[in-house]
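User: Here's a chain of 219 residues. Predict its fold as tokens.
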Amino acid sequence: MTPERFQRIRAVLIQRQPDLTVLLENVHKPHNFAAVLRTADAVGLYRAHAVVPDRSLRTSLVSASGADKWVEVDLHGTLDEGLEALGRRGLRILAAHPDPDAVDYRSIDFTQPTAILFGQELDGLSAQALAAAEAKIRIPMAGFVKSLNVSVAAAVVLFEAMRQRTAAGLYEESRLDREEFERRLFEWAYPRLAEVCRRRGAGYPRLDDNGELLEPVPR
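Assistant: Prediction complete.
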């Protein structure tokens, strides 16, 4: 771990947004799942959620994404479980859905704690997901198509959220609590050592400002 690498990791973690997330409902295609997570990382999401009822599909989706190394991914067996997780975090729920009564996504204040629901590739969001949302948002189209690929739609909406949050100064200081920040910083900087500590039920060693270990690794 070089000091430069450590400072880069720390700078990225500082910008993570704990109160902006997505919930993917039955997005089964690995390339779409992976693309959404790459966007989540690019705009600074700390955590993403996905409803994946098929247990055998869960591992393949996360392993295909790669970005799960940098974005926490919570997988839920049912939509109810996913919505409950969002509710515990006090997030306003929006549904990305091209209904005539949906509002232009650019009119939404994304500086507020927000979770955005995106549906599967063919059928979009379920009736249950739409009913759970506070509002529906849409991306205005000038052509004949009615909707975008789910990964493209997520990118369009999330980069608007990033634009608003950048203007509001929400990326300037860490918005994670200190304990969570230090835990995640060690796991990003020393993933193998973090796994050793977890297996042994030990706390993580402290780090100095350059990422050097100040304490021995637990034996």
